[in-house]
Every structure is written in C-alpha cells, then in structure tokens.
Amino acid sequence: MTKTSIDLSRRKALQAAAGLSGVVAGAVSLSALAATGAKGQAKGGAGAQAGTLAPVTDLAPRPPMGWNSWNSFAGTINEEQCLETAAIMAEKLLPFGYDVFTVDIQWYEPDATSYSYNPNPVPALDAHARLQPAPNRFPSAREGQGFAPLAAKVHALGLKFGIHVMRGIARHAVKLDLPIEGTPYTARDIADTSSVCPWNPDMYGVDMTRPGAQEYYDGLFRMYASWGVDFIKMDDMSRPYDAHAPEIEAAAKAIARCGRPMVLSLSPGETPVPRGGHVRQHAQMWRISDDFWDDWGLLAAQFTRLENWNMWMGPGSWPDADMLPLGRLALGDRDTKFTPDEQATLMTLWSIARSPLIMGGDLRYLDAATLALLTNPEVLGVNQNSTANAPHFLEDGLKVWTARDERGFAIYLALFNLAPEAREVSVPLDRVGLVGSFVLRDLWERQDRGDVKGAVSAQLPGHGAKLYKLTPLV
C-alpha cells in the first residue's frame, strides 16, 4: 500500500528560536520571605509571577506527568505493547508521580506501520461516524467495546488512561455518510471538507455553525467517557488557532457534558501567546511548539517559548513544551541524541518552568541513567510544587530562572549554559532579587554545598545546567 512520507516530527521541524509576541515575566518577588523573619530575604522585586492566575477548573492542579507512545512507537502500538509498557510504568515511574498512560495517534488505523500515514485510510468506525480501536491491533475492542477493556486494565495498575484524537470527523465516515447519534443529521451535514490537517489525511474539520455539529462532539466524548478515558490529547487544534477555536470550544463543552472528568491537552503548537486567555478557559494543557525531538536547536528554542508563556502558567493551566525524547526512540532504531548534559538541561528547564512531564522513550529499554534522570524527587518537586517561577536576563548565553518552594520560604535557582563550551558563571543574588545568607543545595546531586552570600558560582558544562535550592539562614 502506498504511503505518504513525512519527517520524523510529523511536521516540519523548527529551524530557529521562536520570536513569539507576548509578555516575558520579569524578576521574581520573594517578599513572602520577609514575613517569615528569615535573615535571607528578597529585595522587593517587581514582575509577573506565575501561579497568580485563578484556576479555571480543578482539573490538573499540577503539571500532568506520564508516558506517551509517539516517540517510541509512532502510530503502531498494539494492545500487548500497551499492557507491557503500562506494567513497567506502574512499577518504575508511578511511585514518582508519572500516572497518565497515553496511546498516541492512529489507534484506529489497521495498517499503521511507522511515522508515515496512509493517504487513503480505511479506519475502524462505529455506526455513528466515531473512530474505534483497530481490532487487529486491540483485540479487546471487538464487539463494540472500544478501549474500555484496555482502560480497565490500565486503571487496575493505578494509572490514568489517555488517548490521542484528531480534530474533526473521519473522512471515511463522510464518504459513507454515517449518521450522527441522536440526530437526523449525517457526517456530510456537519463536515467542513475544506478544513483539513496539513500533515495527516484522516479527518475533515467540523463546521460548528451546522445543526448536529455539537451533538457529534457530545456523542464522541460520551463514548470516551464510557471507555474510562481520563486524558485527551487533541491534535490539529492549536494551529491555526483562530480557525479552530470553535472546535476547541466544542470539545471543552462536550467534556463538561460527558459525565467524566478529562484533562484536555491541545496540540500541536505554536499556540499564539495572545490567545492565552482563551486557551486556558478551554484546555488544561496546550503545546507551545511543533513536535519536540532530541535536537539541541529545538531545545534551545524552548527557552524563549517558556519565557513568553510563563505569565499563563498556573494551577489547571500548563503551557506544554512537549514530550521528553529520552532513552530508546523511533521504533527502537536509536537512543536519544541528547548528551547527558543536554538531558539534564531538558529536565531542569521543564521542571523550573513547570511544563508537563510526559516521557516519550520506550520503557521496555529504560536504562538506569534515564530512570534516575526521570525520578529525582527533589527535581520533580520543583516541577510539581514550586511557585513564582520567573526567568531573569543577565547575559548572553546564560539562562537563569528562579522560583519559590511550596511554603514560600526557600528559593530555587536554575542556571543554564546555552554555549557548547563549559563556562564558569557567578550570579549575583541581588540580580535575581535576593539578599542575605543561604544554605545552598544541589538538587541533581542531592547534596548541600555549604553557605552562600552575595553570589552563587558554578562550573556549567556545555549545554548544561545546575539546579539549586537556597534556604535562608535563620
């Protein structure tokens, strides 16, 4: 069967750092420290603080953590591989908070083979134009059971169950003109055949001005609820954002009506920063870039994006820098191209900026070094519990972020070297809004480094990072 080939990232890879419009948060204010009576106090710094936004919902109070099949299986994962991977995840990652297991794209495609798409797909469908798990890949889905049996087994492991879905309605359902459940309308009545995904041939958009359109989405999410789905990664949504906004709203409305809490994650980016207010009203996660893979240029570009999105980050509202391409990738063909130092930079940036942590590598080949990188409890604590996260701009090639711990007492300090050569850096504490004396702890090494006053100095490897906790001396 002829396939249409695309690059590994599903879409054209990013070539340069982003130039997003929007506000970049300034120096963090740690005035809460003064109320503790600590000797190490913050100067009255000004600037936007993440975490000051009122939550829209109680879904995703912290950045979601989990695993997704795309980086390691493309669109090919089957039921046996899901269960094997979920068991490993429950044993090795769940104790550290990774609890969302997600089946990525084309679970409905009987002939999925790689990172390419069938130009004329014949997906599995029910009688009401809704995609179903391909029974040759997911045998438990036969007889109309959908993902319910697999979700039940994933839930039994203590995990949440997530699926990837595409915006719109299946082109094959439109060809067959299948009826929309509970309405006199059909797939052709609601499809917008001019609205197509530029990189995937499976779907048409839905024209939300037509009768039956919202009913289609309502029925779709009722089905997902009956399966036991907890997490929806909805693709071809965030770009172009304004064109797809009616379907973003429709999906959010359908989730609210379906009777089951579901986190909604929108993909791909770049989501435009000026639409931050709209997107956080309708989703709990949204991608800030195109697909992220193990390339230093892509990682360097995420700094600017996370800086620009920082003002919109807070409980229930998580700008998503994408999955963690670590360990074994790409259908087992290779291991990550990131060096160990770049891997530490990746985890440090995602943690201090509070991006969701979704592992993408094949857990069946999870090595000790990658496991240690993913499960450092002190680093994960920054991702899950820090507040007042903010970037600072001190000099070229050096990136600096600060945050507070959950109590508002101690300070986190992340230092990043974007240059390929190692460098010695000294960060004056008053430049990041701090005065006083502190106990310095290296979170990656999980060791105290003595007392500091005035500045923090560090030797940073090329493309490397340090993450510290500064506790005021009292």
Poorly predicted parts: 1-51
Strand content: 15-25%
CATH superfamily of the largest domain: Aldolase class I
β-strand number: 25
Domains (count): 2
Family: Belongs to the glycosyl hydrolase 27 family.
Signal peptide: 1-34
Keywords: Disulfide bond, Glycosidase, Hydrolase, Signal
Catalytic activity: Hydrolysis of terminal, non-reducing alpha-D-galactose residues in alpha-D-galactosides, including galactose oligosaccharides, galactomannans and galactolipids
Description of the molecule:
InterPro entries: Aldolase_TIM (IPR013785), GH (IPR017853), Glyco_hydro_27 (IPR002241), Glyco_hydro_b (IPR013780), Melibiase_C (IPR041233), TAT_signal (IPR006311). This is Alpha-galactosidase. The protein has 474 residues and is an alpha/beta fold. The protein folds into two domains: 335 residues, TIM Barrel (Alpha-Beta Barrel); 100 residues, Immunoglobulin-like (Sandwich). It has 13 helices and 25 strands. The strands form seven sheets. Strands 13-12-11-10-6-4-3-16 form an eight-stranded parallel beta sheet. α8 links the parallel β10 and β11. α7 crosses α8 and α11 packs parallel to α13. The N terminus is likely disordered.
